[in-house]
Amino acid sequence: MKILSDIAALVTGMWITWKHIFRRPVTIQYPEEKRTPYPRYRARIVLTRDPDGGERCVACQLCSGACPVDCITMQSAEDKDGRRYAEWFRINFSRCIFCGFCAEACPTLAIQMTPDFEICKRDIMDLVYEKEDLLIDGCGKSPDYNYYRHAGIGVTQPRGSGAEEKPPVDVRGLLP
Amino acid sequence: MPKLIIDDITVEVAEGTTVLEAAQAVDIPIPHFCWHPALGKAGACRACAVKMLEGPVKGIQMSCMLPVQDGMVVSTTDPEAVAMRRHIIEWLMINHPHDCPVCDEGGECQLQDFTIAAGHGIRRYSGKKRTHVNQDLGPFIQHEMNRCIQCYRCVRYYQEYAGGTDFGVMGSAGRVYFGRFQDGELESPFSGNLVDICPTGVFTDKTARFRARYWDYEMAPSVCSGCSLGCNTTPVARYRELLKITARKNEAVNGWFICDRGRFSNSAVNDPQRPRTPLVDGRESTRDEALEALALRIAETEQLYGTGSIAIVGSSRLALEAALLLPQLAQLTSAGALCYFTSEEERATTTSHLGLLSGGTSASQQEIRESDCIVVSGCDPLQDAPMLALAVRQAWRDGATVYVVGDGIVLPCEFTAVAAVDAVPLAAAKKPVLICSASCNSDHPAGLLVQHSQLKLAVIFPAANSYGAAQLAGEQGGVSLERAVASGKIKGIISVEADIPAHLLAGIPFVAALDWRMTETVRAAQIFLPTTAWVEMDGTSINNEGRAQRFKKVMNPGLPIRGLDPAGHPPHLHRTVPPGGEAQPAWQTLALLIERVSGEPVTEPFSGRWERLRGLDAGSEGVMIHDL
Amino acid sequence: MIPIELKAELQGRIAAAVTNREAAVDVMKALQAHYGWLTDEAVVEAAGLLGLSPLQVEELATFYEMIYRRPVGRQVIHVCDSISCWAMGGETLLSHIAALLGVGVGETTADGLFTLLPCCCLGNCGEAPTLMIGDTIFGGVSLEGAAELLDQQRNR
Amino acid sequence: MIYDPIDIALLLGKIALVFFVILTLAAYLVFAERKVLAWIQDRKGPNRVGPFGLLQPLADLIKLLTKEDFRPIGADKWLFYLAPAMAAIPAIMIFAIVPFGAPLTLFGHTVQLQVSDLNVGLLLFMALSSVAVYGVALGGWASNSKYALLGSIRGLAQLISYELSMGLSLVPVVMLARSFRLSDIVNAQAGCWFIVYQPLAFMIFLISIAAECKRIPFDLPEAEGELVAGFHTEYSGMRFGLFFVGEYINIIVLGGLATTFFLGGWHGPFLPPAVWFSAKVLAFAFLFIWVRGTLPRLRYDQLMHFGWKILTPLALVNILVTGWWLVLRG
User: Fold this and answer.
1) Which of A6, A73, B597, D41 is most buried (CB neighbours < 10 A)?
2) What's the rounded Cα separation, in Å, for the pair D327 and D325?
3) Do residues B187 and B89 make contact, with C-beta atoms less than 8 angstroms apart?
4) pLDDT tens, D241-251?
5) Res B488 pLDDT > 70
6) Are strands A84-92 and A72-78 parallel, antiparallel or unpaired?
7) Closest chain A residue to C80, measured at CA
């Protein structure tokens, strides 16, 4: 009988909720009690440096392109040594939704997300972080990665001496 | 007309079309690197593989090399073809650096697009990559040989299409190198097109190096204002800064390319010295105040010196919209002179040459490219209208004979020097074209046109909208400012984007200027109103053949963000008008002035026979004004 | 600068060709013979003679294996590494000669006598393995024969 | 009619008492609901305002009173203002006929613990519950909003449909008690509660009143998933508060009526009658909260199908069976 199984389903449901009434709540009383987020937690964004201390960010605009709320703006420029870098770099955290697309899009692992989720300011303008506020003195995750070693165009090392590169071809050389 | 089936779609195309073009005609994209519509086929990259299922040829074929034939059944999605293309792309990518984040081509890179389209996302090759040393190719073009995929487009363009000899391909097999004999600036005046034509980032625009990404670009169809040819361009701007100018295809005019002068001439728009605020007697003011003062001064001048003491001065670089409003303003202020030219000589030669051009006698660049006999008479196209020289070269490549009258003229093709046009066997030619300059009145071609009915004329005018200015001067009875000032009646000048020589301004008590450049006239003016540059407005200009073309607004006027302190950027600081953004198109300022004087609002510059230009599509080939 | 006689000879050779470009290889060969290798200066000179741009000459110079755009020894030894010779021990021959000369492939001996280069096919497959010293081709070269050949050349 | 001043004083006292108790209860019912739902969901519920969050209803009240009183452009001003009152007033008026304790003797007067013991009490209940429909109808219509209008259309159809089965489920009760007077119905259950004779009618009545107070699983007029907040989408501040409190008053009142009709009213051993009555009403309230924490919302067509094709026929059959049974028993 379908009606009997329906009623049984109703009763089962009611029984389950009844049991839950007497369970211990899982709630944490947040400001007093705090939970440590996991290291990969996606909160406040930082800009990291490569192992040699150079800025990882090459201002390629992929993060701002990937950002669904357009909270990242920057201006790229060329340094004296040929490095591409961000002349200014701005994240408007009052817009940021912490989706992590920027970190995922970042080809140089410059943008990374930290577990620091407590970004609260009295003035909304204080949530506009400039490059000075974002740049940290460290590599964050992937401490050994240096983008320019793999880029294949030189810049931090002579051309043809990066990882997985042959020395430059001499088109006038004798060998075929 | 052969009929074939591509991916279940029946296509009918002209004889001689390739399968690749036939597919493009029905919006089926086939990856390609070495094939380019302007360069034709090379069969070098192998990326355009398709499978021929039925018909005269079968199996995997290069679609760019294969002319269509009746009964062909083509599949672009056949697993075999897809696998072939995937492998080709993988091979092309073996030595390609992982530098997309620092490559200016990133985002507008054909190699990127086709690599992703082919489904090749991860590099499997674990060996070492070949590298090259770059060359310094001068201030405009950045060289990055590591990115090269050996499609040969650059060298085919540079040597064959543009006739350059200082750039080519060296070496053989796995170490070919595209470059010059030694470091140094590329000599061809069309070298900038390497940036557009390279399917990846070997050649990038050095002037816009590391500035922005394709998806952030502000772009709109535009028209070059460098010379009178009106080549079609797509200027690229970001953050109120004109970054670069790229070529835009217009088969009738410039084809696929533009000259270096047009491409690398954006500095005036970004010039920090550009006047951006209205001035009244050297004091910064608002637009309304300046207009009020201007109307008052006009009235005062006329009171003081009598009616007819005001000269309204336009110029041949002024957009058609504003030029059309000048007669209205002249009438309202009962101006003594309406001028489109400052010098009498320029007015006379331009007007007289204009009289020769009609729908039938005016040669477009396309007609030059298709001509079989070209006479360059008394002008230097490479100097005054470089794209004409390139068009001449294309005709020469197709077998046309080129004759040059005059000394010291260089063309990017072989030519025969003749003493006079009479020595050219024009009568034997089917589609002869005569190229002459409006600034040279010595051998006026009027007589030739009568002699040779099939002869077409390409006149090089001095400036972007000379044609429009001369046309209006003829219709509205415009005189040259030189003559008007000489009459002694003129006591006030309203200059609208005109470059008036200092000696003409010397005795004039009242000068007002509308302009976007810091000219001598602007410095001399008591009242100044800023106007927008061509990339900051919608406008129309008429090129040397009488083709009206629309250019669209690319960016908002205002100081580029680049020069501003980041602390003043939005969202830190918000304002409705960006700093220095008070400029408006000259015709709108004129319309406001006319409204102030007459009380009648002006909402539309095009009226009468010009009305058809209202809805002119910037993406079209333009409208010949002979047809209006 | 090349001697006037050579210049005149080359100009004659160029004049005899239908197009200048056709004579380019001959001119380069002659200049190479004169300088020992095709120096940058020689490229510019060849371009001047041929009415081409230096780049256009360079395109050809870098394309051909036997036009040397880098300094070479008095004799250039080309050892074939193409399929027939490879099958008959061309690889061993090459490394043997390299050991005899005490240089690597592509290098010139300290006395400036020999430059050792691999090359792909000398058109002598019937007598593999084969090598070429200067302009002379030697077929069926054994390891001992190679040592002998080198001695002969050295003593010449 | 004798207008004895003491009678009038007692009457006013009873009204004041009922008002005070009902409104306080309604406020705390909101609190209780939030707490119980939290427990069901393994949460803690409101616990910040006062000890255990007990002052939460007060805070809510202050919040609602101080919020901006907003009226959408194009809303029908007077109907818009009237609708919340139409929702809350009939709900509280129904309680006038509910006997909430055994008659007391005070100052020599026998005091019915009931504001008004009408001989057609049950009919008055039916009438007033019909009037409550207007709150929903007008609120949704006057808002000039598509969500509100859709909510009110649903509400109208639902309330009218379920009123039918509700009314029909009470007919056997009247047949058993042989009176429309609520005190008579209570007294008729002194021996045995009607739930024993009429389990089916009780179930139908229970379901119908759940639908009448628009509670989950019958909250289609509000349906926040689809309609934002249904008929009161556009209301803010205390006007919204009136709708809100009206719903909880409805729970108490309908709980009281269910107690009266089926659970023997204030009858019960050992404890004082008023305590019995309160306990039964609160048990109903808890049941409603518990159901809300368990069941999902019905689909609209399921709702109408259930009302018209199952509940109403069942109620009719029940009347027939009851009639036969009464006839057979004599």
Assistant:
1) A73
2) 5
3) no
4) 888 888 888 88
5) yes
6) antiparallel
7) A176
Phi, psi torsion values for B11, nearest 5 degrees: -125, 135
Same domain, yes or no, for B211 and B301? Answer: no
Q: How would you write D124-177 as a 3-class SS string?
A: HHHHHHHHHHHHHHHHHHHCCCHHHHHHHHHHHHHHHHHHHHHHHHHHHHHHHH
Q: Does A1 touch chain D (CB under 8 A)?
A: no
Task: Give the structural domain span for B180.
Answer: 127-270
A2 close to D (CB below 8 A): no
Q: Are residues B587 and B484 in the same domain?
A: yes
Inside any domain, residue B113:
no
d(Cα D107, Cα D110) in Å, to the nearest integer? 8
Are C67 and C28 in contact by the 8 Å Cβ rule? The answer is: yes
Q: What is the largest CA-CA distance in chain B?
A: 88
Judgement on whether residues B472 and B340 belong to the same structural domain of the protein: yes
Contacts 24+ apart (CB under 8 A), D194-199: D194/D261, D194/D262, D194/D264, D195/D262, D195/D263, D197/D172, D198/D172, D198/D173, D198/D262, D198/D318, D198/D322
Question: From CA B240, how far away is CA B257, in angstroms rounded?
Answer: 25
Whether B199 has a pLDDT exceeding 80, the answer reads: yes
Give the Cβ contact number of residue B67 at 10 Å.
Answer: 15
CB D320 within 8 A of CB D328: no
| C-alpha distances in Å from residue A110, one per residue of A43, A53, A135 | 15, 12, 9
Q: How far is CA B184 from CA B187, B201, B315, C52, in A?
A: 9, 19, 38, 18
The phi and psi torsions of D7 (rounded to 5 degrees) equal -55, -45
Q: Which amino acid type is present at position B233?
A: T
B168 vs C62: CB contact, 8 Å cut-off?
no
Beta strand segments in A9-131, E: 45-47, 72-78, 84-92, 111-113, 128-129
The topology (CATH level 3) of C4-63 is: Arc Repressor Mutant, subunit A (1.10.10)
Residue among D33, D226, D234, D47 at smallest CA distance from D145: D234
**B372-393 residue pLDDT tens:** 999 998 889 999 999 999 999 9
Q: In sequence order, what DSSP letters do the residues of B467-530 get, joined into one string?
A: HHHHHHHHHHT-EEHHHHHHTT---EEEEES----HHHHTT-SEEEEEESS--HHHHH-SEEEE
**Does one domain contain both B417 and B288?**
no
R_g over Cα of chain D: 20
Give the N- to C-terminal CA distance of chain C in Å, as an integer.
29
Domains in chain D: boundaries? 5-329
Question: Each residue of D179-204: pLDDT tens digit?
Answer: 888 888 888 887 788 888 888 889 99
For residues B587 and B613, give the distance between their C-alpha atoms in angstroms, rounded to a whole number.
Answer: 15
Side chain identity at residue C105, one-letter code: V
A25 near D CB under 8 A: yes
Do B16 and B67 meet the contact criterion of CB atoms below 8 Å apart? yes
User: Which of B165, B172, B182 has the CB atom closest to C56's CB atom?
Assistant: B165
According to CATH, the topology of domain C75-154 is Glutaredoxin (3.40.30)
Domain end marker among B270, B302, B332: B270
Q: Return the domain boundaries, chain C.
A: 4-63, 75-154
Task: Choose among D217, C113, D3: nearest CA to A14.
Answer: D217
Q: CA torsion, points A6, A11, A14, A19, in degrees to nearest 10?
A: -140
Mean pLDDT over D290-316 rounds to 88
Write out the DSSP string of D177-242: HT-S-HHHHHHHTSSS-HHHH-HHHHHHHHHHHHHHTT-TTS-TTT-HHHHTTGGGTT--HHHHHH
Which ipTM score applies to this complex? 0.76
- Please give the model's pTM, rounded to 2 decimal places: 0.80
Task: Let me know whether B237 and B286 are in one domain.
Answer: no
B513 forms beta bridges with B495, B528
Determine, for residues A166 and B170 on separate chains, whether the beta-carbon distance falls below 8 Å.
no
pLDDT at position B441 is 61
- C-alpha span between B91 and B88 (Å, rounded): 5
Q: Is A89 on the interface with B (CB under 8 A)?
A: no
Place of tokens 């062909």: B72
